[in-house]
Amino acid sequence: MSGVLTGFDSREWTDRNTDGASTIVRFDGCTRQGGFNANATIEVRRTISGWPDDFRGNQTLYCATSDSKSWGDVRSGTYRWRVNKISGASSGNRLYVRYVKTSY
After folding, report:
1. Which domains does the chain have, with CATH numbers?
2. pTM of the prediction?
3. Phi-psi region of 9 (alpha: psi -120 to 50; beta: other; left: phi over 0)
4. What pLDDT shows up at residue 53?
5. By the 8 A CB rule, do 50 and 41 touch?
6. pLDDT, tens digit, for every residue of 49-90?
7. Residues 104, 102: Cα–Cα separation, whole Å
8. What is d(CA 31, CA 91) in angstroms, rounded to the nearest whole number?
9. Nearest to 23 by CA among 6, 41, 43
10. pLDDT at position 49, please?
11. Do the Cβ atoms of 20 and 70 come closer than 8 Å?
């Protein structure tokens, strides 16, 4: 990811919940503008057509080197994650991440 702001959404993915695998998001090499180390608070949401999304919780990735967080074995559905904070701030920062992986 390069220069994303808070509110940035990942691509959606569909978890059919057939294997018992946890939903895990991993970021490696997080910085913010100016090259400063950064962390990122992200949320995972399940998309529900015609209703508000199902909020699955916020977690902070301390990813100057590498970090991953698990949301557990989520129910069947379509999901995405969103950047809510960058280094604790809801605005004013841009996030750069060298490697991003979502597994489910």
Report:
1. 2-103 (2.60.290)
2. 0.92
3. beta
4. 87
5. no
6. 888 889 999 999 999 999 999 999 999 999 999 999 999 999
7. 7
8. 15
9. 43
10. 87
11. no
